[in-house]
Each structure stands twice: as C-alpha cells, then as structure tokens.
Amino acid sequence: MNMKTITLAVIALVTVAPITAKYHQGGMACNEEKGYADDLHQKIFDPERMQKQLSLSQEQTDKIRKINEDYRRKHEAMRAEMEPRHDSLREELMADNVDLEKIRSMLKASSDKMIEMRMLRIEHRLEIEKVLTPEQKKKWRDNHREMMKKYKEKRSEK
After folding, report:
1. Where are the beta strands (DSSP E) in 25-144?
2. Count of CB atoms within 10 A of residue 140's CB?
3. CA angle 30, 35, 40 (to 5 degrees)
4. Do 77 and 63 form a contact (C-beta atoms < 8 A)?
5. Which of 28, 41, 90, 148 sits at a 20 to 30 Å CA gap from 121?
6. Going by C-beta distance under 8 Å and a sequence separation of 6 or more, which residues neighbour residue 22?
7. Contact between residue 106 and residue 117 where contact means Cβ atoms under 8 Å apart
8. Closest C-alpha to 120, from 50, 47, 28, 46
9. Are the beta carbons of 109 and 85 closer than 8 angstroms?
C-alpha cells in the first residue's frame, strides 16, 4: 500500500469507528452523544411530560403515545438495518488491501441512511404537532428550544 492509501484508510477508520462504537453501545446512529441526547429525545416526545406541560387531553396523550410507538418501531428497524453495514465497513477498513471506492460507497450508503433517520425524527415531530392545538404547539416548540439550548450548553462544557 502506498502512503496515500494508508492515510485515507486511517481517516475513514477514525471517522467511522466512533459512529460504529456508539451504535453498538445502543447510542444513536446519527452520531449524537449517547445518554443525554437519547434522554433529551425521550423527554421531548414523552406523552406524560407533554400532558403536564401542555395540558393535553387524555385523547391527545393516547394519540401521541401511539405515534411514538409507531416511530419507535420504524427507528429500530432502521438501526437494525445499519448494524450489518457498519460491521461490513469496519471489516473492509481492516482488510490488507483497502478498496477506497468501496469504502466511499459504503460511507455514502451509511450517510444516506443517517439522513433517512433524521428525516424520520422530523416526520415524528410533525406528526405529533398535528395532535396539538396552536397554543400547545407554540408552547411545545418553546420548551423544545429551551431543552435544545440546555443540551448545547452541556455539550459545549465537555
């Protein structure tokens, strides 16, 4: 292997290894920190928390609970689909003769799947917003912004 190939393989490994490690730890496949990011997402979409903060009716709470369950299943299916991709990529990076075009293709496929996962989260949020009144939606968005602000502050402390 020439120096350029080795350098590119190392860069790809350094880029993919943290994502893969977080994935296998049960972290988020969209390269967010395990723990607080998961907790934040759960808090934002938690129907009981929303019920208290937004004075939701029982019908609204039940609808949101069902929406959450539907999106949880979709998210888990996507994560399960990504696991073998990450394993294959890691194996390819450790091969004696690293095929950079194959690595590029594999990274692109992983990136595309991560975009799909992010889009799923956005769809999830929009689906929940359909259940809310305009006043509840405004308050929920304000709460969401505040939680994201705290999350960013916590991340910047590290």
Report:
1. none
2. 20
3. 80
4. no
5. 90
6. 28, 29, 31, 32, 33, 34
7. no
8. 28
9. yes
Number of Cβ within 10 Å of residue 108's Cβ equals 10
Per-residue pLDDT tens over the stretch 121-141: 999 999 999 999 999 999 999
Rounded to whole angstroms, the Cα distance separating 130 from 148 reads 21
Q: What DSSP character marks residue 112? A: H
Q: What is the pLDDT of residue 124?
A: 93
The answer, yes or no, to whether residue 29 has pLDDT greater than 50, is: no
- Specify the residue for token string 């689909």: 81
The C-alpha angle 62, 151, 146, rounded to 5 degrees, equals 65
C-beta separation of 68 from 45 below 8 A: yes
- Most confident region among 3-17, 39-53, 54-68 by mean pLDDT: 54-68
Tokens matching residue 77: 């299916």
pTM value?
Answer: 0.68
Sequence-separated (6 or more) residues with CB below 8 Å from residue 151: 36, 37, 40
**Which residue has 């709470």 as its token pair?**
61
